[in-house]
């Protein structure tokens, strides 16, 4: 399973070069990850109130210029499930083919990852993923891997 969201880049997310500010894409990735978790039936707002889920690593590679008003499709998927953390990966594409890009229109604009850790609110320390969360994440990971094998 791969999940997607649509984003239109607002003017406020553009820097002085006229391109997207690097922090904006990290925010879009975070939004996409929350949306993925909702799609998996585990909304952060109401699920696991005894835990916190900080991002302990964020990375993003910018392959193409992204500008004001560009429409992006950001896909997210679970890439790895550990004892107390998981890694989500993201790829963004232009939602509409841009004529000037020609054959390059299908290449990603960005790719990145977030590593999210389960933290016990009381102790402030990493804790094993709850069984329900682990089962959903592993099922999603296996679904993605199976799709990659059959392609």
UniProtKB/TrEMBL annotation:
Recorded hits in CDD domains, A to Z, give: 4HBT (cd00586)
A Pfam family that this protein carries is 4HBT
Q: Which SUPFAM superfamilies match?
A: Thioesterase/thiol ester dehydrase-isomerase (SSF54637)
Q: Which domain of life is it from?
A: Bacteria
The record's InterPro entries line, in alphabetical order, gives: HotDog_dom_sf, Thioestr_dom
Q: Cite the Thioesterase domain residue spans from the record.
A: 18-88
Q: What is this protein called?
A: Thioesterase
Taxonomic source organism: Reticulibacter mediterranei
């Amino acid at each position: 399973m791969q999940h997607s969201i649509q984003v239109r880049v607002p003017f406020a997310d553009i820097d002085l070069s006229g391109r997207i500010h690097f922090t904006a894409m990290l925010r879009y990735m975070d939004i996409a990850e929350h949306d993925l978790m909702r799609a998996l039936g585990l909304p952060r707002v109401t699920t696991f109130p005894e835990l916190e889920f900080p991002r302990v690593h964020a990375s993003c590679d910018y392959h193409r210029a992204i500008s004001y008003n560009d429409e992006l499709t950001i896909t997210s998927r679970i890439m790895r499930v550990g004892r107390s953390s998981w890694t989500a990966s993201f790829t963004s594409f232009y939602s509409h083919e841009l004529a000037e890009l020609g054959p390059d229109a299908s290449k990603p604009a960005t790719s990145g990852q977030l590593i999210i850790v389960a933290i016990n609110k009381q102790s402030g320390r990493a804790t094993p993923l709850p069984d329900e969360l682990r089962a959903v994440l592993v099922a999603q990971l296996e679904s993605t891997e199976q799709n990659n094998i059959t392609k």
